[in-house]
Amino acid sequence: MDDYPLAWNLSYKSKGQQWRGLFQYSKFEKDLELGGKVLELGSGDGNSASQILKLSEKIICLDIAVSSFRTLPMKELAMPKIVGDARMLPLKAGGFSTVICRHVLTHVRHDDSLLILKEVRRILAKNGTALIEVFTPDDMRYGKGKMIEPDTFLRQENLIWRFYTMGELKDLVEKAGLKIKKEDILAREVRHDGVEYQRESLVVIAGPGLQ
Ligand SMILES: C[S@@+](CC[C@H](N)C(=O)[O-])C[C@H]1O[C@@H](n2cnc3c(N)ncnc32)[C@H](O)[C@@H]1O
Predict the structure, then answer these.
(1) Domain 7-207 maps to which CATH number in 3.40.50.150, 3.40.50.720, 3.40.50.740, 3.20.20.70?
(2) Residue 43 CA, ligand 1 centroid: distance in Å
(3) What is the pLDDT of residues 105-119, one digit of tens each?
(4) Residue range 168-211, pLDDT digits in tens
(5) How far is the CA of 10 from the centre of ligand 1 (A)?
(6) Tell me, what DSSP letter sits at residue 117?
(7) Spacing, Cα 39 to ligand 1 middle (Å)
(8) If you count Cβ atoms within 10 Å of the first and of the last residue's Cβ in the chain, which end, N or C, has fewer?
């Protein structure tokens, strides 16, 4: 645990690219301000960033793991890349029209979720919006590893996996000073070796100035 959250560095060093699968941005595109500056927070190996790049010309990637920027897909993406901690972003207030934050809160300790959301609020422009995605306790990954906090598990590579109910996520988003514009549950079944498993995540769209 001493290496939290930098355990990600070893993960990308040993695995390289590890995130795949398309996110349906079309479902949320009209709720986001993709014409302005976009931050992909916790950009990882660029799986989300490569999709956003098709919708936005002004995207910046930020991740705590320098090794994430050395993964093959990320190396191929021409966009500014910043190594930084989402709990204390090295970015000025109000500079972004959109923040994409997919599965970053999934991998942090309880106290850090609110810190990160407050930073998201700080860097968003007044009419900006954030897209936040996390897994639910009904997801197939729930319960694996050692429970270290409620609904939070320490798994292989010393990585943390936290699962949220919609109520918990919305409460944190609102505590951070963001107003919720839209919420959604993305659920589907996947089949591995003939067995069906549930994948389930929550998406919240929120911003400082939304009603
Ligand atoms: C599951 S990956 C998500 C990657 C990407 N958002 C995507 O959806 O393809 C989570 C990422 O969050 C990053 N991360 C975790 N804690 C962080 C922190 N405190 N500050 C910045 N990035 C962090 C990890 O390094 C990792 O790349």
Answers:
(1) 3.40.50.150
(2) 6
(3) 999 999 999 999 999
(4) 999 999 999 999 999 999 999 999 889 999 999 999 999 998 54
(5) 13
(6) H
(7) 12
(8) C
